[in-house]
Amino acid sequence: MNDPNGDPRYTMGRDKEKTDRLIQQSRLYDGLTRQLFNDAGIRSGMKVLDVGSGAGDVSLILAELVGSEGKVIGVDSNAEILETARVRAKEAGLANVEFLAGDARTLDVGGDFDALVGRLVLMYMADPAAALKDLIQRLRPEGIVAFEETDFTIYRSSSRPDTPLMNKLVEWLLAVFERSGAHVAMGSDLYRTFVEAGLPEPVLHFEAPMGGSET
Ligand SMILES: C[S@@+](CC[C@H](N)C(=O)[O-])C[C@H]1O[C@@H](n2cnc3c(N)ncnc32)[C@H](O)[C@@H]1O
Questions:
Q1: pTM score, two decimals?
Q2: How far apart are CA 57 and CA 29, in angstroms?
Q3: Which domains does the chain have, with CATH numbers?
Q4: Which of 74, 128, 162, 185 has its CA 20 to 30 A from that of 107?
């Protein structure tokens, strides 16, 4: 079901349990995210906009990378989750990160950002290319654009052994996200999305955390 913007309704829900899940998920992705930002050239002193900042995990990484001379603004349409993000930033002693509630595409956050970033957020926007086109208006000329998105369709072929139960779980996962309207292959669509938004061809990496049962 879509919201009034035409966006998919956020697939994973909005309660405390879902926020805790998001924080746990971050432990899987944070290493890759940090690498992405380092490779993209995010450095000390920069001003960065984190789109769809959730419980703050991406902003916390950025706050460390840009240091006390830099500034991070995290924007999320879910005002409640930002309370968690603010507490976490305070506990980490980070004074260079601020969280604002609103739709990142339209909220007035000022301009002249050195970098525009987001993780697992374009997949929840009705028209990711149009969103990116709006969002890059907040960047200074030659600013950095760095997004990390997933492709759930690849899960179909990634489990070993390839058991019927695992395949069923993957199909259920895909069905839930597809029915919510989320872009399940957003990661693989990033190239087209960047080009349609009028950006130069992006440098893309495909990376994934992998694991297995301990027994
Ligand atoms: C899967 S969570 C990812 C959170 C965080 N980026 C992370 O990786 O831990 C996606 C977040 O994007 C937010 N979101 C989705 N569309 C948004 C929009 N148009 N503007 C601001 N936030 C948005 C959701 O509320 C949600 O908190």
A1: 0.93
A2: 10
A3: 16-150+185-196 (3.40.50.150)
A4: 185
